[in-house]
Design a protein that fits this description.
This protein is mainly beta. It is built from 1 helix and 27 strands.
């Protein structure tokens, strides 16, 4: 450009007014699941560029409707686990109609070894009970039907606890109800399956129960944890009999050396499921509760055990961080299910629905979640006996 006349250098004043406030998102944290679908938490802050520098502002100064989610879905890799099954047992009857059963277990197809069932709980599972026929019984009149005609359909009945016809009770009255199972009944072998135990200590006799799958639940107030010791076990490990302990923060199965083990729930609830094949087998458990060694809940969280009641969304306490998510935990007897009906919802106007205010309901047995916005009234049902509700903003 040397031959061309060079223009004079000059400076012009540019607009120095602050840029409008905007949302800033930091990279998401680690995924909550090692494989499959999980959640990653990201930090969302309100900032403004002023004279070339980034200034942190209060959240209400940024457009509320445009606030990004603080939790985003994430997938690290596909889970490499699958359900596998044992061979079907012989028909339960020597003639006429009966049932066949088989045991399920979670398998790592890469190592061909069994792993904890928690790794397979997100995958569909085939049936473990089916009808069978061993031919007509001798007393049956010949020609009344072909062998196998009229097979009995085997179904699993579920009981639903709904608030539709229930007396409206404030949630504070249901924080800890008296145990529905007297201590004397808890020690008998006939009626423990499907029960919820709320006492501070007790003995649960699961020996010789009639059901091959027997599930009990233990519940205590928030701030406590449960310890379980096995007093006696007659499980046949080689036949696949097992007992499973599961909570919000732990999962453990066992069969061998059970009388020497001590199980800690780490939270205030614990589910115990026993699977037996041979009549008369089972375990006897002794449980105790104590103050939790670590705090696993927010001060505004609630724990409900009652069969019905009214839930009013909790709010952060004075002085508590505004980003705290308040939760309500619901635990009912294992033989029941949870139904939640929204009677009244007001989560703000249409512009605030997308990211700011919402209710999240989680089915604990499958870890599947549903999100409800705005003034959307809903009716939700669980597949298991535990549910969680999160009230965001």
């Amino acid at each position: 450009c040397h031959p061309v006349p060079k223009p004079e250098s000059r400076m012009e004043v540019c607009d120095l007014s602050p840029c409008p406030p905007r949302w800033k998102v930091t990279p998401a944290g680690p995924c909550s699941s090692s494989c499959g679908l999980g959640l990653a938490v990201q930090l969302v802050t309100c900032v403004q560029i002023h004279q070339g520098k980034e200034v942190l502002l209060e959240e209400h100064l940024c457009p509320v409707a445009e606030k990004p989610l603080t939790s985003v879905p994430c997938v690290i890799r596909t889970c490499s686990y699958e359900w596998s099954f044992s061979e079907w047992t012989e028909c339960s009857t020597s003639c006429g109609n009966g049932i066949q059963t088989r045991q399920d277990f979670c398998l790592n197809p890469l190592t061909h070894k069994q792993v904890n069932p928690i790794f397979c709980r997100h995958f569909p599972k085939a049936i473990v009970v089916r009808g069978c026929s061993a031919g007509p019984c001798p007393e049956q009149v010949e020609g009344t039907g072909a062998p196998g005609a009229g097979l009995q359909a085997v179904t699993a009945a579920t009981h639903l606890t709904t608030p539709a016809t229930a007396k409206e009770v404030r949630h504070k009255d249901l924080d800890l109800a008296p145990s529905p199972v007297p201590q004397e009944q808890a020690k008998t072998s006939g009626g423990v399956c499907g029960k919820l135990f709320l006492n501070a200590t007790g003995v649960i006799n699961m020996l010789g129960v009639e059901s091959s799958d027997c599930t009990v639940a233990i519940g205590r107030p928030l701030g406590e944890e449960i310890t379980v010791s096995v007093l006696q076990s007659s499980l046949n490990c080689s036949a696949g009999e097992v007992v499973l302990f599961s909570g919000r923060m732990m999962w453990r199965t066992g069969c061998r050396k059970l009388p020497l083990s001590l199980i800690n729930s780490r939270t205030n609830t614990l589910i115990v499921k026993q699977r037996v094949l041979l009549p008369g087998n089972g375990v006897i458990l002794q449980y105790n509760s104590r103050t939790a060694t670590k705090k696993y809940y927010q001060d505004c969280d609630k724990q409900l055990f009652g069969p019905q009641g009214e839930i009013v969304n909790p709010v952060p306490l004075p002085g508590q961080r505004q980003e705290v998510v308040c939760r309500t935990f619901i635990t009912v007897a294992p033989r029941h299910r949870v139904a939640i009906r929204a009677l009244y919802i007001d989560l703000g106007n249409e512009s605030n629905q997308t990211h700011f205010n919402y209710i999240l309901v989680r089915d604990v047995s499958t870890m599947k979640t549903m999100v409800f916005h705005g003034k959307q009234q809903f009716f939700w049902q669980s597949t298991g006996s535990q549910a969680e509700i999160e009230f965001h903003e």
